[in-house]
Amino acid sequence: MAKSNEPIVWSLFSAGGVLTALAAPALIVLLGFAIPLGWITPSFEHVDGLVGHWLTKLFVVALVSLGLFHWAHRFRFTLIDIGLKSLDTLITVACYGGAIVGTGVAVYVVWL
Amino acid sequence: MPDEKITLEILRYHPETDEEPSFQTFEVPYHEDWVVLDAINWIKEHVDGTLTYRWSCRMGVCGSCGMMVNGTPRLTCAVFLNEFHPEPIKIEPLAYFPVERDLVTVMDSFMEKLQSVKPWLIRNEDEEKPLEEGEYLQSPAELASYKQFSMCINCMLCYAACPVTGLESEFVGPAAIALGMRYNRDSRDQGREQRQEVIASHDAIWNCTFVGECSVVCPKDVDPAGAIQQAKVESTIDWYTSLLPWTKK
User: Fold this and answer.
1) Which residues of A fall within a CB distance of 8 Å from B249?
2) Quick one: pLDDT band at residue A2, thresholds 50, 70, 90?
3) pLDDT value of residue B128
4) What is the per-residue pLDDT across B163-212, written as a single tens digit (0 to 9) for each?
5) CA geometry: angle at B156 spanning B225 and B207, to 5°?
6) Closest CA–CA distance from residue B144 to any residue of chain A (Å)
7) How confident is the model at residue A112 (pLDDT cuts 50, 70, 90)?
8) Is B205 exposed, middle or buried (0-12, 13-18, 19+ CB in 10 A)?
9) Are A2 and B164 within 8 A, CB to CB?
10) Which of A7, B50, B143, B153 could join B236 via S-S bond, C-beta 3.0 to 4.6 A?
C-alpha cells in the first residue's frame, strides 16, 4: 500500500482544532464580554501596542489559518461521507484551496 | 411469569431459495434472566431448526454471536431480553458484511484485513536470543501500555458500528488497526516498520474520520478509536521526521 501524504493536512487539521479550542473561548470572553461590558478598561496605547506587535499578528494569522484548515479537512470528509466521493479531487482543491486563500487574506489584513 | 412472551423479528436469508432477505417473526417465552442468544437458541430448538447463526461460549469471550440488535451491534450473549420487553426485538446480521445465510456473515474481508497488520510478535532474526537465555521479560508498565488493545475478541461489532466501513470497503477498520497497535506497543516486538506499510496507508488510519462508534460498541473496552488516533499522531511524527535531511534513507 502506498504511503499516505495525509499527515500534512491532518496535522494542520489537528493543530487548528487544538488552537481554536484553547484560544477561541478566551478571545470570546475577552473581546466579546470583558472589554465591551467594561470589566476591564485597557488604555488605547496598551491595545495599540498589543495588536501592533508582530507576535500578536502571527498568532491571529495562525488562529485564522489553522482554523480554516481544520474546517477544510472536516468539511472535505463530510462531503465525501454524504456520497460525493466521485468529486474528491474537486472537493479537496476547493476545501484546502479555500483555507490557503483565507490564510492569504488573513496575512493581507493583518500585515499589509 | 412463565406465560409471558416476547417477539423477535429475525432477518432470514437462505440463498438457495430466497431472492432477498426478509424478516420472520417469532414468539418466544420471556424470562427475565434470558439473553437474546437464549431466545434465538430456543427458536432453533423448538420452532425452526434451519435458523442459522454463530455462537459458542455464551459468556462474552469468543466473540462469535455479534448481531444487530434493534440496529445496534451487540454480543447477543450479553443483551438481556428485559432491556426491551415488552417491545419486540429486531435481530439482523452484522451491518456492512455480506450475508451468507440468516444471521451468518461472510468474514473473509475482515480476516484479510486482520492478517494485513501482522498481529503477531515480530523479531529481527539476528537479534533473537537463544532459548536457554529464557523469556523476554516485561515490566507491569510495559504490559499496561498494550494490554487494553490486547483484549479484542475479534467480534467485529466495531466494523458493524463504523459508518466508514460501510462507505469504504477497503478500510482496514478499527479492530485490525487496534491489534496492529497492540503489537507495536509490545516491548518484545520489532515489527512496527512492517506494520506501518499498512497502518499508515490511506486505506487504514487516514480513512478514519473519528466517528468513535467503534469504541462505544466494543464489549471489551478496547477503544479502537483511541488506537487509531494514537497511530495518526505517531504516523504524522514519522512523516515529518522523514523529511529531515539526517533521517533520509
Assistant:
1) none
2) low
3) 86
4) 999 999 999 999 999 999 999 999 999 999 999 999 999 999 999 999 99
5) 45
6) 27
7) confident
8) buried
9) no
10) A7
Is residue A74 over pLDDT 60?
yes
CATH T-level fold of B5-105: Ubiquitin-like (UB roll) (3.10.20)
C-alpha count within 13 angstroms, C-beta hemisphere, residue A42: 13
Which residue in chain B has the smallest CA separation from A15?
Answer: B233
CATH 1.10.490.10: does it fit domain B108-247?
no
Strand order in the sheet with B89-92: B22-29, B5-12, B89-92, B66-69, B72-75
What confidence score (pLDDT) does residue A5 get?
A: 83
- Residue numbers in A near B235 (CB within 8 A): 7
pLDDT value at position A25? Answer: 95
For residue B1, pLDDT beyond 70: no
**Neighbour count for residue B186 (Cβ, 10 Å):** 22
Three-class SS state of B139: coil
Angle at the Cα of B219 from the Cα atoms of B215 and B220, rounded to 5 degrees:
85
What domains appear along chain A, each with residue ranges and CATH number?
A: 9-36+52-111 (1.20.1300.10)
Q: Residue B49: CA atoms inside 13 Å, Cβ hemisphere, count?
A: 0
Indicate if ipTM > 0.90. Answer: no
**What is the C-alpha to C-alpha distance for residues B208 and B171, in angstroms, rounded to an integer?**
8
CB contact set of A105 (below 8 Å; sequence gap of 6+): none
Mean pLDDT of chain B: 95
Contact by Cβ (8 Å): B124, B190: yes
